[in-house]
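Retro notes
What went well: the complex prediction finally ran end to end.
Inputs used:
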Amino acid sequence: MRYKSDSVTTDQVHIKEEIDVTDPDVIPIIFHKKKSLIMQLLIKKEMTIIDLKKATKMNPGTVKRHINDLLKYNLVFVSRTEKNEFSIIMKYYRSSAKSFNFEISWP
Amino acid sequence: MEQSKTDLKISWQMYKSNYKAFIATELFAIFAFFLINIALALLLVAIYAFSPNLEVSSLFSDLTSRLSASHILRVIVASISFLVMVGFLNCQYGLAYDIFSSGDMFAEFKSSFTYFKRHWWQYIILIFITGLGMFVPNRSVDNDPPRFLENVNILAFQIARFIVLLLFLILFSSTLPSVTAQGNLIKSFNESFRIVRKDTKRLVKTWSIYFLIFFAPLMIFSITLTAVFSYIEGTFWIPLFYSIILAIYLVIFFVGFPMMSLIATRIYNDVDIKREKPIVQKSSTSKTTEQKQNVSKISLEEVSEDKAG
């Protein structure tokens, strides 16, 4: 099964072209409706939780929990942390790769 | 002046987008206050019920010569619940830390419990050492109706009280964000004094504006009340005055308090001083994996590198 993004608009942080996923626990994570939506956005560009909140219309707490799940399986990572002009620290998240390859065999 | 305006503006914007977490924390603090009062009262009743021969006065033999056992117990119960309430209220500094420093720019009510677990005793000690505990609404105005004959003294006292509060705020307001960020009580005073030395004008301006917005109405109203208290009577004016006092306290409690923590944390973050090393790495939520901790460590290192640059 192959998951591929439609377009890659910005690429400030170099990310891998594709990752082979062998851990079966990742499947429910990546195919979760909301998490896959977040992943699609993070494949295109790096975003903060507030950016993701605006883009997905989800509660920031919910976005944060989805991000934590994605972080746990190395599907996303913190691409950079910076202080904005108002001295607020902003953490940017980015997808680990532009596409993910799954090899599933059952049983 | 521009900096002070920005401090207030940014803090207000952050309050507007996170007010639910702050108000929930305050309501829970009040709830905890009453819950502990009731629980301790029930515990005492249970002790009495199961030990009919127990005489409480024997526990406080010296004190009971001056105070009744019932009074002592009420003071103990009220003090414990008050301390828990104050500790929990100041978890708002943890929420402000989540907004300004964690990198995620939002706060959740449940984070208050994490900060309470980490810093409750430090918050309580700081609040009492620095005198910031005086900002906890204590019904001093309506508890103690001023008498017209003592007008001059009471007026002088009220003005002096507000000036002292403002001074405490300027001197010690950064201790709470500091202890939240780096976790050491004594170092928080060092950082606070560094901030005062570095940006005194900004602190004076920002906190004076804050004071004018949130505490000047209370001051003006309590002085007015002092002057007219002996003249007003009837069922209309007295309830009206007390309703206004209640409204002012509610604004201070639900808006002024969170704004205080947000302004203090913003100033703490913004002023360029030598920072103390954090004792523990902070993360905005209670659940942390090893990977997340590594990420936050890298992030913090990146930020400190930026600062050095």
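What we learned: The beta strands of chain A are 2-4, 16-21, 76-83, 89-95, 97-102.
What to try next: split runs per interface for comparison.
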